From TrEMBL:
Protein name, as recorded: Cytochrome b5 domain-containing protein
Species of the source: Lapidilactobacillus achengensis
Pfam family, one: Cyt-b5
Top-level taxon in the UniProt lineage: Bacteria
Domain Cytochrome b5 heme-binding: 6-77
InterPro entries for the chain: Cyt_B5-like_heme/steroid-bd, Cyt_B5-like_heme/steroid_sf
Amino acid sequence: MTERTFTKAELAEYNGVIRPEKYAAIDGLVYDLTPMAAWAGPNHHGNVAGQDLSEAITHAPHLKTVLPKLQVVGKYLG
């Protein structure tokens, strides 16, 4: 894993609009959502990239089982 860190403002840039990549923080780690087909549109079940989705993922049908499939790109400082 990279030693890169993201503040809330830095993570917000990775929403697929400001920057083409889509990242999200979950439990202090930042994941790259870009290659996931489910994130091809502007949102995924109402969730938007570039945010801390730690709470949102606890309500998802897949819970955290999807996380091992994603690349960790850094740590989230909030």
